[in-house]
Design brief:
The protein is an all-alpha fold. The protein folds into three domains: about 90 residues; about 100 residues, no CATH class; about 130 residues, no CATH class. The protein is about 80% helix and about 0% strand.
């Protein structure tokens, strides 16, 4: 009986411990499940946070990469442009020289109608293009050939020669001898002296005295009188003190002809030349070589056409401009795709 009671007590004790162990195990499993669930939630939250941070970081990295790519593109484009600028060759400078010469030729032709100078400038431009030996310049040389042919067939007026000739005559105006009245004071003095001398010579016959006085007076007065036919034009004589104004008038008339020559005013040019010629004929000594030489030169200028038609030589200049614009477009277009 005692043994049975001990065995029963032992069983009961083990059963209680087993129940306690089961309860503890159940509690541990519940606690483990709670910890596992909490850990899973924390892990999920961490993953979500990390994923959000990664997305934000990736977005920022994408923006930075785009900025870097844009800056690199700009740098490549600027480098390409800089390379195109620094790669300017001697040919480019020679073509720019051709453009300058053609501009100058057009200016000379339009302002002074100097056909000869314009033709020489076009020929110099063509020689430069010939030395470059570039097939792309064929259209420019073709336009140059047409413009040179037009200038060669135009009537050439030596504007510079005419201007210099008028300038030389203007400087000579002050030295030309003019027609002036004789010095009347000297003749009168001679007459008075003759009368006084005759009065003092009491021994002379009165008739001889009168004849002597008349002869002396007539000899001095004779220089005052100029006998001209009625059908001849009367040339007014100027006193010596007015010679300056006469010569200045001639000089101004010649200078007016110079200005009319440069401006291409035909009527003013003809009028100034005719006026200068008239002044020489009416108020200057015709027996002076300088006067006759100037009259002959003015006669050559009278009736000279200073408004000769000049051709238009803008085609060659436009061809050069078109070529330079095309080269610039090609150079800038090479860098344009990189900049985009």
């Amino acid at each position: 009986l005692g043994a049975s009671g001990g065995a029963g007590y032992l069983w009961w004790t083990q059963q209680g411990q087993s129940d306690q162990l089961s309860s503890v195990a159940s509690d541990m499993r519940a606690a483990g499940d709670a910890v596992a669930e909490q850990s899973a939630q924390q892990i999920a939250q961490m993953r979500k946070t990390v994923s959000s941070d990664n997305a934000s970081m990736n977005e920022r990295l994408g923006e930075l990469q785009k900025t870097i790519d844009d800056n690199a593109t700009i740098l490549r484009g600027q480098g390409k442009r800089l390379l195109s600028l620094t790669a300017t060759t001697t040919d480019d400078w020679r073509i720019a020289e051709v453009e300058y010469l053609l501009r100058l030729a057009n200016q000379r032709l339009l302002t002074s109608r100097d056909v000869r100078s314009a033709l020489e400038l076009l020929r110099a431009s063509d020689r430069i293009l010939l030395e470059l030996d570039d097939p792309r310049l064929f259209s420019i040389r073709q336009a140059l050939a047409e413009d040179m042919a037009a200038l060669s067939s135009a009537e050439a007026i030596d504007i510079d020669g005419l201007y210099l000739g008028l300038s030389a005559m203007s400087r000579q105006a002050n030295s030309l001898p003019a027609l002036v009245l004789p010095d009347t004071t000297t003749a009168a003095d001679h007459a008075v002296d003759a009368v006084a001398g005759a009065a003092q010579e009491s021994s002379m016959n009165w008739q001889g005295k009168v004849k002597s006085i008349l002869a002396s007076t007539w000899g001095n007065v004779r220089g005052w009188v100029v006998i001209q036919p009625r059908d001849a034009s009367i040339k007014p004589l100027l006193p010596p003190e007015q010679q300056y104004y006469l010569k200045q008038n001639l000089r101004l008339s010649l200078e007016q002809a110079q200005l009319a020559l440069l401006d291409g005013r035909q009527a003013v040019f003809d009028d100034s030349i005719a006026k200068s010629n008239t002044l020489l004929a009416e108020h200057f000594r015709q027996d002076a070589q300088a006067v006759t030489a100037m009259q002959e030169q003015l006669s050559q200028y009278l009736g000279l056409n200073i408004q000769a038609e000049v051709p238009d030589i803008a085609d060659s200049l436009l061809a050069v401009k078109a070529f330079m614009a095309e080269q610039h477009r090609i150079a800038s277009g090479a860098a344009q795709p990189l900049a985009e």
